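Before going further, it is useful to explain how the protein records used in this thesis are read. An example of such a record is reproduced below.

***
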Amino acid sequence: MREELGELISYELSDPRIGDASVAEVLISPDFRRAHVRLTLSGTAEDQTATLEGLEHAKPFLKYQLSERLQLHRMPELYFEAALPTELAAKAIQVLKRIRRGRPKS
């Protein structure tokens, strides 16, 4: 699903609000009702917000195209979110490790 969605966003959407966005990962719930699409976005904060708004607007088109290309029993609802930059994600992992070390085992 990640590759197909990436191709749709990159090559088939013509919304001028959608800037440079690539699909970092797609997390699908076990019941296939929700798919959280994490995107790597470039540009300013306003550009990133505009890209997310454009993708929200294009959601019906994306769902239809994905249902045509993929043989899924159920087409999940798409939720778009910006992925953390790699340096920020690494820092978050370090903080979580420090928090876990500080907690007593129960």
Q: What stands out?
A: Residues 27 and 36 are 5 Å apart (CA to CA). The domain at 2-102 is CATH 3.30.300.20 (GMP Synthetase; Chain A, domain 3). Residues 86-102 form the longest helix (17 residues).
